[in-house]
């Protein structure tokens, strides 16, 4: 890393660990009212609110290290450093991509990807690209309809978005008028949100001008976060005070960690729930666990919960822990030598991921990331500026999107001749286009070892709709850069997609796409007494 040693010394001198325990021997007790498994994106939120009641005791078990003192976590620009450090800050997970060919006579292709899941206090919120997006209101309304639970309606969820958020001005104090809607943002929450905090004018100007030149295809959207994201608009980030704002920084503030009823143990990897008991007449609906088994160092320990165990181990860890505990498909469990406690077929199933395909061009500009990352002098100057005043290019995410487009397939798309439209309503997008200064853009199996990395099939392109829709998305991206404003700015593309037929583009996409690192679906919600899912609401 191109950072002078003295700046590291200056930074680390202010680190304090408050009530974060890094040795199980220092933990005052192993008996609590609530035990929260996972100190990632959601765990600190739950722990914060539970311990507002001083009569309640809470233990958080986090497998990773602390977030404080990690430069790559605090400095927004350096986040790729922490993501690429698989040994210190990541779980290594085996993801299998099994993609069927479009021609039904051809066999499927299989590839294996070693992927990291976040392994640090704050989880993904301590290592992600920090883009702040709430999604489409119609998606939340669909959740409410699916589960029969009215709390998921957008108008019920929206106040919690405001409660969570604290909008802050960009570090460079540039004028933000006309770039967001202040009426849909919170001002008093723990998570800081802002626009891009260091502006690179050239790409931004071309993107906005395209919305003027091609407004029917690419309408300007002042703000993506009121529940109607369609269009082209500015990216909002969870960045404040010149650095990352995460669940760890926002919900585990020093005053919260000083609460006598909150204990957070780091380096503690939970393997399974223990001591199941039947609490009702029908065992399949009335199993309760009293504790969790976790590993610290080479030894196993048990933490007991008198009221509730809250699983917040993420899309990978949560089903893995449940399967280790005997909850899952009894056939799969028996094959691993695990006794079935509760036969739930959905455990470890339905892992899904969206695909990602990049497009890139040479540009007639020196406003690129490479102007910093490939120039040691400029790199160190930029870091020194951040260290001195929390300003400059290091306040931004390294992905450096200035704008984003949430777009739909056209109503007359040929895709709909073969597949129904999966959208929940007219205001939800099919795909996303990111604009960057350096480029443009199934199920899980459990190994017998409870601490081994699980095997996951994300089913990338297993649904033909995804590949066909992405092909049309590429076509729409090409139309975007055909606007007159890009003349003289864009040079030669890395791959000439304009000369390809739609079928050739689909083949290119299948060969050159990858996962978007946003796996979802393994803890699916369902209505009460449904025959699918495993979290009744």
Automatic annotation (TrEMBL):
Glucose-methanol-choline oxidoreductase N-terminal domain ranges (all copies): 32-354
UniProt keyword terms in alphabetical order: FAD, Flavoprotein, Oxidoreductase, Signal
Molecular function in Gene Ontology: flavin adenine dinucleotide binding; oxidoreductase activity, acting on CH-OH group of donors
Transferase in keyword set: no
Species of origin: Mycena sanguinolenta
Protein name as catalogued: Uncharacterized protein
Signal peptide annotation: 1-18
Source organism, top-level taxon: Eukaryota
Stored PANTHER family: CHOLINE DEHYDROGENASE, MITOCHONDRIAL, GLUCOSE-METHANOL-CHOLINE GMC OXIDOREDUCTASE
Family classification: Belongs to the GMC oxidoreductase family.
Residues annotated as domain Glucose-methanol-choline oxidoreductase C-terminal: 437-529
Residues bound to FAD: 128-131, 270
Cofactor requirement: FAD
InterPro entries: FAD/NAD-bd_sf, Glucose_Oxidase_domain_2, GMC_OxRdtase, GMC_OxRdtase_N, GMC_OxRtase_C
Pfam families: GMC_oxred_C, GMC_oxred_N
């Amino acid at each position: 890393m191109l950072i002078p040693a003295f700046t590291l010394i200056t930074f680390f001198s202010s680190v304090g660990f408050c009530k974060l325990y890094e040795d199980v021997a220092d933990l005052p007790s192993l008996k609590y009212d609530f035990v929260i498994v996972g100190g990632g994106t959601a765990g600190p939120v739950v722990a914060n609110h539970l311990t507002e009641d001083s009569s309640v005791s809470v233990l958080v078990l986090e497998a990773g290290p602390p977030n404080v003192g990690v430069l790559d976590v605090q400095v927004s620009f350096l986040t790729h450093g922490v993501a690429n450090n698989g040994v210190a800050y990541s779980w290594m997970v085996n993801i299998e991509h099994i993609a069927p060919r479009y021609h039904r006579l051809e066999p499927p292709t299989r590839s294996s990807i070693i992927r990291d899941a976040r392994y640090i206090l704050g989880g993904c919120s301590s290592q992600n690209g920090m883009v702040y997006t709430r999604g489409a209101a119609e998606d939340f309304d669909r959740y409410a309809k699916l589960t029969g639970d009215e709390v998921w309606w957008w108008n019920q969820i929206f106040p919690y978005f405001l409660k969570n958020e604290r909008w802050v001005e960009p570090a460079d104090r540039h004028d933000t008028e006309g770039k967001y809607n202040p009426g849909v943002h919170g001002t008093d929450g723990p998570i800081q949100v802002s626009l891009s905090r260091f502006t690179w004018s050239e790409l931004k100007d071309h993107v906005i001008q395209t919305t003027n030149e091609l407004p029917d295809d690419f309408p300007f959207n002042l703000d993506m976060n009121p529940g109607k994201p369609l269009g082209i608009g500015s990216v909002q980030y969870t960045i404040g005070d010149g650095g990352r704002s995460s669940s760890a920084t926002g919900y585990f503030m020093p005053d919260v960690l000083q609460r006598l009823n909150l204990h957070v143990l780091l380096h503690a990897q939970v393997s399974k729930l223990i001591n199941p008991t039947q609490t009702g007449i029908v065992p399949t609906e009335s199993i309760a666990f009293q504790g969790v088994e976790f590993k610290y160092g080479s030894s196993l320990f048990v933490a007991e919960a008198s009221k509730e165990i809250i699983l917040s181990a993420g899309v990978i860890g949560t089903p893995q822990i449940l399967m280790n505990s005997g909850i899952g498909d009894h056939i799969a469990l028996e094959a691993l030598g695990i006794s079935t406690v509760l036969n739930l077929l959905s455990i470890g199933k339905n892992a899904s991921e969206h695909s990602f395909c990049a497009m890139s061009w040479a540009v007639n500009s020196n406003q690129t990331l490479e102007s910093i990352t490939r120039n040691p002098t400029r790199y160190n100057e930029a870091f020194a500026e951040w260290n001195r005043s929390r300003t400059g290019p290091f306040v931004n995410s390294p992905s450096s999107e200035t704008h984003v487009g949430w777009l739909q397939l056209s109503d007359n798309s040929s895709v709909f001749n073969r597949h129904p439209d999966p959208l929940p309503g007219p205001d939800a997008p099919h795909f996303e286009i990111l604009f960057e200064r350096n480029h443009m853009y199934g199920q899980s199996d459990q190994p017998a070892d409870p601490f081994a990395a699980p095997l996951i099939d994300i089913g990338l392109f297993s649904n033909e709709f995804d590949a066909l829709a992405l092909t049309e998305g590429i076509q729409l991206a090409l139309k975007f850069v055909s606007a007159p404003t890009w003349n003289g700015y864009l040079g030669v593309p890395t791959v000439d997609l304009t000369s390809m037929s739609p079928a050739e583009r689909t083949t290119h996409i299948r060969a050159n796409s990858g996962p978007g690192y946003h796996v979802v679906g393994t803890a699916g919600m369902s209505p009460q007494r449904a025959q699918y899912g495993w979290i009744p609401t």
